[in-house]
Write a structure and sequence with these properties.
By secondary structure, the chain is α/β, with parallel strands linked by helices. The chain is built from 11 helices and 8 strands. It has helices at 26-30, 34-39, 73-84, 98-108, 125-137, 152-160, 180-185, 209-222, 284-294, 302-314, 319-339, and strands at 120-123, 143-148, 164-171, 177-178, 191-197, 226-229, 254-259, 272-277. It has an 8-stranded mixed beta sheet with strand order 1-8-7-6-5-2-3-4, sandwiched between helices. A hairpin with a 5-residue loop joins strand 3 (164-171) and strand 4. The longest helix has 21 residues, at 319-339.
C-alpha cells in the first residue's frame, strides 16, 4: 500500500503497518534436519520417457508407510482400554507414570545391569530421548562424538544446542564397526559424551560383545559417559544376538535410549525412554538434570504411556521373531533385485 510519501511499503522491504522482518532465534537458525527437509519435497518423476512407474520414497524408517507392517492387535487394544478407563486424561508426572516406569524397568533389567523404576525417564519418542541425553551431558561449546555414517538427527540436535559434532568413522569392511583409534583421537577435555547406535541406523550392523567392550574401554580411559541409542534393540537377523552395552560394564555411566516406535511399529505414537545405568553414582547431577529437562514438556502422552504395561505383558513371544523374519526376507529381496539392476 502507498505510504504518505507515495512509496510502496512492501517494495521498500516493509510489511503493512510498518512491520519489518522479525528474525528467528539463533537456535532456530542452527536447527536443520536433512531427512525432514527431504520429506517435505514432492517426489518428482524422472525426466525420462521410459519411466512409467510410480516412484517410492524410501527416505525414512517408518514401517507403517506402505501398510505391510501392522502393529499387533494387543497394541491397539491396550490404548483402547487405557482410553476407556478415563484414568489417563490428566497431566502425568513429567518423568512418566510410575507403574509404566516400573514395567519398563522390569522388561529391560538384567543381572549385570539392574534397573529400577527411578532409572527410567519417559520421553517424547526416542528422538526426544536423544535430545534430552545430549542436552543433559553437553553444554554449548562442548563436543560430542557421533558415528559417520549415522542418524542425521544426532547432528541436528548437537548443532541446535551449539555443541560441536565430531564424527568418528564406521568401517564398512568390518561390518560398520567404529574405528576405535579414530574415535579415541577425537576426545579432548571438552568432550561431553560418546554416542553409539546399536543396532545401527542406517548401516544395519549389530556390534559384537568384543567391539562394545572396546568402545567401553575408550570411555573408561577418558572418563567420558556413553549414550547408547538402542531403539532397534533385539531387531536382528537370523544367527545374530543383540547385546545391550550396559550389560558389559559396571563402571561406565550409560544413558540407554529406547522406545515403542520400531519394534512395536508405532512411530507416530511418540513414546520413548531413557534408562540410566550408573552403579558408581557418577550421574548424580545428571539424574537431577534429566528430571529438570522432563518438565519442559511435562512428560509425553499419558494415554500411550498407560498402554505400555499391557503391551509388554500380552504381546506374544512369537511376535518379534516373526517380525524379524519378515524384515530379513524383505531385505534379501531388495538386495537381490538391486544387484540385478544394470550399472549398479
Amino acid at each position: 500500500m502507498p505510504s504518505a510519501n507515495g512509496t510502496n511499503e512492501a517494495s521498500a522491504g516493509q510489511r503493512p503497518g510498518g512491520w519489518g522482518a522479525i528474525p528467528a532465534s539463533d537456535v532456530a537458525r542452527r536447527t536443520f534436519n536433512p531427512i525432514r527437509d527431504i520429506l517435505t519435497r514432492p517426489v518428482r518423476p524422472l525426466a525420462s520417457p521410459q519411466c512409467s512407474k510410480e516412484l517410492l520414497s524410501l527416505s525414512i524408517g517408518d514401517p507403517t508407510v506402505f501398510g505391510n507392517f501392522k502393529a499387533h492387535p494387543v497394541v491397539a487394544k491396550a490404548v483402547e482400554e487405557a482410553a476407556a478407563s478415563y484414568r489417563f486424561n490428566g497431566y502425568p508426572p513429567s518423568v512418566g507414570l510410575a507403574h509404566v516406569r516400573e514395567a519398563i524397568a522390569s522388561k529391560y533389567t538384567h543381572p549385570d545391569a539392574p534397573l529400577a523404576a527411578n532409572d527410567v525417564v519417559m520421553t517424547s519418542g526416542c528422538s526426544g530421548a536423544v535430545e534430552m541425553a545430549i542436552s543433559v551431558l553437553c553444554d554449548a561449546g562442548k563436543n560430542i562424538l557421533l558415528p559417520r555414517p549415522g542418524f542425521c538427527l544426532y547432528n541436528t540436535i548437537a548443532g541446535s544446542h551449539n555443541v560441536e559434532a565430531r564424527l568418528y568413522n564406521l568401517v564398512a569392511e568390518r561390518n560398520w564397526e567404529a574405528d576405535i583409534e579414530h574415535m579415541e583421537s577425537l576426545i579432548d577435555e571438552n568432550t561431553g559424551a560418546i554416542l553409539i547406535n546399536n543396532p545401527s541406523n542406517p548401516c544395519g550392523s549389530n556390534y559384537t560383545k568384543a567391539h562394545l567392550r572396546a568402545i567401553l574401554a575408550v570411555c573408561e580411559r577418558h572418563k567420558v559417559p556413553l549414550i547408547s541409542d538402542e531403539i532397534y534393540a533385539d531387531m536382528v537377523f537370523s544367527g545374530q544376538t543383540f547385546t545391550s552395552t550396559a550389560w558389559l560394564t559396571s563402571t561406565v555411566p550409560i544413558l540407554t535410549l529406547g522406545g515403542l516406535a520400531k519394534q512395536w511399529l508405532v512411530p507416530g505414537w511418540r513414546i520413548g525412554w531413557i534408562l540410566i545405568h550408573d552403579r558408581a553414582n557418577a550421574f548424580e547431577h545428571v539424574r537431577h538434570g534429566l528430571v529438570a529437562l522432563s518438565t519442559l514438556i511435562n512428560g509425553p502422552c499419558a494415554l500411550i504411556q498407560a498402554a505400555i504395561p499391557k503391551i509388554f505383558a500380552e504381546v506374544p513371544g512369537t511376535y518379534l521373531p516373526e517380525l524379524n523374519r519378515q524384515l530379513e526376507s524383505n531385505a534379501c529381496i531388495l538386495e537381490t533385485e538391486i544387484n540385478n539392476i544394470p550399472g549398479l
